User: Fold this.
Amino acid sequence: MWAAADPGSTFSLWDRQLLALAANNTNLFICLFICPADKPAPKWTNIVGLPQRNPCYGYNMAGTGRYPATGASLGLDGGFDRGRYGGGTCLAESQVKVPSDMIALADCRPISGGEDNDLDDLFPINLLSELAPRHNQGENSVFCDGHVEYAKHAAWLRKSDRARQRWNNDHQPHPETWGNNP
Assistant:
């Protein structure tokens, strides 16, 4: 889930949801969500009234489609309503056709439309538009089954059926969406 309401109506993003599972000492494990290779990354806490996006890693909310989606999402977003902060649904695991070949998270540099990089700023089109080649001109991506792969930036962005199907929950390339992406 990219964004959801915690019990008690506290709004949080994907990383905060995972952070709760990491350990009892939240402050100690915040470093899990900061890439050591991203030297200029701002300090991230995501323990604020209006959550901030993670400065190093992005969630594949839209696949190769646009966010917010006008129809069914191609990514892992289960139907977040941009107009109402505080809601979000999870995409059921069974809706990911090939978990071992679907990108869930990747190195990124969030694009912000405002000054404080929080949710009242401009939403990105999708994670492909924010990839950050900070590892020898490439990125690490985490797949839905938990494994990690490294590839050069150009390989993640290649406009081919094989490269683009890895971003979508139905494991289809959706060439009609390629104009949305770099």
